[in-house]
Amino acid sequence: MLIDRIEAQKNPIKHTLVALVENKPGVLNRVASLFRRRNFNIDSLSVGMTDDPTVSRMTIVVDASKTSASLVERNLYKCVDVLDVHDLTNVPSVIREMALIKVNIADTHKRSEVKQIADMYEARVVDVANDSLMLEITGTEDKIDAALKILSDYGIKEVVRTGRIAMARR
Amino acid sequence: MKRTGSQIIWETIINEGIDVVFGYPGGAIMPAYDALLDYTGHVHHVLVRHEENAALAADSYYRTTGKVGVCMATSGPGATNLVTGLANAMMDSSAIVAITGQVASHLVGSDAFQETDVTGITLPITKHNYLVTDLKELAQVLAEAFYVARSGRPGPVLVDICKDVQQKSIDYTPIKINKVRGYKALRKPIQQDLQTLIENAGKLIDTSKRPIILAGQGIKHAAAHEEFKVFVEESGIPVSTTLLGIGVLDEDHPQNLRMMGMHGEAYVNNAIANADLLIALGMRFDDRVTGNLKMYAKNAKVIHVDIDPAEIGKNVPADVGICASVRDVLPHLTETLADVQGVAKYKDWYAQINEWRGDTKAHDVLSFDLPANMLIAPQVMRIIWEETGGDITICTDVGQHQMFETQYFQHTRKNQLITSGGLGTMGFALPAAIGAKFGRPQDEVWAIAGDGGFQMSIPELQTVIQEGLNIKIAVVNNSFLGMVRQWQELMHDRRYSSVNMTAPDFVKLAEAYRMKGLRATTIQEAREAIRSARAHNGPVLIEFVVEQETNVFPMIQPGKALNDMTRREISLEKKYMPASMGGGMDELK
N or C: at which end does chain A have fewer Cβ atoms within 10 angstroms? Predict the structure, then answer.
């Protein structure tokens, strides 16, 4: 879609869309199928329950250099099971991601070093093994990226990231 | 009152005011078919010969009545056979509800006999779909399905119902739905203030010197023909229609330039390419309409009105994009017109268009000096129009004959042309004619198909007979898959690959189906055959044996700009030979 590509190039930023959807089987499939069908480029998608058991909340990060966020939003609205969509990109909001990072501890003396780094990033140690340490870290993607960069010196055995979740401040 | 799931299906259909269902029974839908017997006299079931044609007939029923078309099939192969029909309805925005049987709920996911993931398969080609495993949900889901199908931008909705859900009983009260949580028939996600948008549109119209209205099927869906005509006449702006927009304004109306796009007349596409304002109403700038987007109407501002927010700005950026039903917008647009001097305001613009129009006749194959003993497809369309006075419902198939029909049949009746636009579904004409005859029983209904498309739907001849339908079927036989052959001729250096088509003896075929069969090979015979078919009170199949290599012109070749058209050579360089003499095939030998 030519027009939206032009629009997308003008706004080379990550857009955060929040979609409230029916909490029913197959709804994630419908949304994922829409992205595939329209050839939309999605950086991350995270889904979870809300305070209303009939409603789930999806946070979708769109790489706006490839796909127009507005087009994604308008197409999401066409899904009958999508209740509401908000673009939080230009709205003051809290954005978080969580990661679990398993760091290699080849030498047990390094353990306290890693713990110190973890403290700097307000990360918690959630598991310890003979040759590794598992950290839980929460924050923006940038913060997690930075922590991973530092920790990579010790050797990272495994990482899992949740993808972005977001909420408008008011 | 206690009702079985099957009874709820039929009562919902009847409560929707629908009196005909197209379908085909089988294992998983048998309880519903059993219950059908209890509703004899309230709803009629048409037994098609292939489920795809049930969906296509339901599509055509919607287009001819405005009521939701219903088709029904069993699980597995029955449901997968519906797929093409559903995709057709999706592309052309036809409101149909497909009801399919599914294996019993405890067997779902076990690869049971005739089990298929039907909601999974049809997800991208339906507006919405449902799998019903619990009887408690059935009444609500069915009512929602009809509401979603017909509201907003219409489209197909599929309801897959487990066999045990059809069999069990529950307390039932009919449900009327005018709201579904999350679904809004008209979405306004883009902040819009209608009044401001109308004013902005009014300003663009007021200052433009070369405006043109691009009229699409949305006007039909909104039943806004009257509002549209008022706007057209008060504004004085010329109109061009899309293929599916044919029938929103009479084609003999002086402001109607007729169809645009790949096979639109050259002056129409020239007008669009040179316009300074496009007023697009209920259309979606399909690639067959725009040609190469980079070169499309470069100097034009665009006002785009469509009910679907995702269509605005999708292919062509809109200076004023209005997400609304054209019916709600047109009266305001008319009011906002600064002056209502009609066509006089655009005297120079019309003069320019008429100048472009001047050479149309010279390029028209019907103005050529053709041998008397030959018949070409454009003549067939012209003669059907002349002989019927144009007062018929026409269902065309897909390909050359479809484009010739738009060019040589002048449409002067509201919504009289039923054709497969977006999906281009070969085999559409005959099932569409069946659906149309149920939708408009008083109408003279014609199916016009090529020899290729018709051979995809031949089995439905027996449906026509079994239902006693008085349908006239024209098979335009050029012994080729004509449009593919034309592309191979023009774009593949005439390397004909798998386009040479043989056919049965269509007259004998008609007779085998206990139907009247006729054949015409000349203009005179064509006229006589049409007269004789119309005089006959019953279905008739006429085979028109036409010249094999007549091309559809003008043509915008893929990737070319809208006004970069291939025209028909004025001098008759190409040798026209009657098909009976081997036609163009001799040159190949």
Answer: C
